[in-house]
Each structure stands twice: as C-alpha cells, then as structure tokens.
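Exercise 3.2. Students should predict the tertiary structure of the chain below and write it as structure tokens, then compare their answer with the key that follows.

Predict this chain's 3D structure.
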Amino acid sequence: MTPNFSIIIPTYNHLALAQRAIDSVRSQEGVSMEIIVCDDSTDNRIERYVMGLHDDRINYHHNRPQLGAVGNWNEGLGKVTGTYGIVLHHDEALVGNNYLAQLLHVIRQTNADIAVSEVHVMIGEKRKKRHFPSRLKRWMLHHPTTLFGLNAIGPCACVAFRCDKRQAFHEPLQWLVDVEWYYRMLRASAIVYYPTLIVESAHDHEGQISRSIHIYQAWQHDAKIIGTMHKGISLRLMLAIGKTIMTVKQQFGR
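Answer key:
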C-alpha cells in the first residue's frame, strides 16, 4: 500500500538535531508514512540511534562514500514511494502531532500539487517568527521568480509536493539551491499556502551549512549558474534585487 507521505531526512554528524527531526515525524498521527533517513555522517551515532528505534517505517541509508549536502538530498528524493513528499533537514522539525494529517486534508481539499507551510526560526530555546504578510507571500508563490529577490518560503521542509512531480536539486548550486528548486517546482503547479502549519528551523548551531561557506561568494557563484539555466528580464531583475540585499547584509555584517 502506498504511504500518504515520504519524509526525507538528510542527516550529518549531529545526533541531537537528527533525533528531534525524526521524533517530530514519528509522532505524527492519522497518516501513513515512510521515513527515509539518508545519513552522510562520518560516524555511526545516528545509525545506532535509528536502528535502536525498531521502527519499520524508517528506511535508513548510510552513504558510502559521502555524497555531500545536496547529493544527500537527491539520494533521498530518489527513494520515495509515497504520494506526497517533504525534505526535512536534520535541523528542522514538524510542530504538532497532527501536522501531516492537516496537511493531507488541505492538499486533498484543494487538489494541490504543492502545499507551503510557515517557518519559525529557533535560536537556542528562543523562537523567532517571520513577520511576512500572508497576502504578499501567497502572491510570490504564484510568481516564483520573485523568490530570487527574497526567499519568502524559508527551508525546504515548508514545501510538500506530489512525489510523481518531484524534481532533483541542482547540485552545482550552493546558497540558492533551495530557491532554484522552488522556482522549478512552483512554476507549473497548483499551490496552496497554509500558514497555520509550522516548521521549526534551528539556526546558529554547530554544523550549520551556512557557517561553512562564504555566503556572498556562494550567492555570486549561484547567480551566474542560474542566469544561464533560466532566462528572462524579470529573473535578472530579481537576481539584481537579491544581489543588493546580499551586499547590504555583507556591509552591515548580517
């Protein structure tokens, strides 16, 4: 029987965050699911934890050799068998044990290809809500070129998609890899925005990808690639706006 959801959890060397992400999915009620843990870790701590759960809903894969961050995401996408999918990074968690049940209800009710939820950022124990007008965000989702100027979605876990319409992440990209994926996924899809469903995303933790790259240089690198992949005046305009925002952030150290 096809599960309602395939939840992909790419992990790397952070057991506590991986536990939180996995537990937030295992606690979901009212839906069927498979949990695909693709582990790029250099040790076996996460493997031991997962095996100790004895949960037959979990498909665990320890990559040998390592695939790198984006390769690990794509590895998980290639293993889905469910109707709908979510890529839940190990520093993210679903809020509430009825998250997936509510999500399934709204997708079926609207016959959407993609459902977008909201994100709350966690810095330590402090929760930070994103103050972004819902009406503007809904408009941007239907005009996904605008996301190159400002990522109004947040992390990938906020995007649930029909598995039969999934697309791979473009592995040469670094900083804009999620935004470019949103752009392709949203362009020809029926979309529903459901802001009362929340994903928590932990920031400023050890091992966070943004700590290991020079963000502005990565943005410039990605903008060149995206400019050759996708054409159009509006896209170039949004990339220019995004560059301005990144320049201001770099100038003021934010």
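Discussion points: Helices lie at 15-26, 45-53, 69-77, 99-110, 134-141, 177-187, 215-229, 233-251. The first strand starts at residue 5 and ends at 11.
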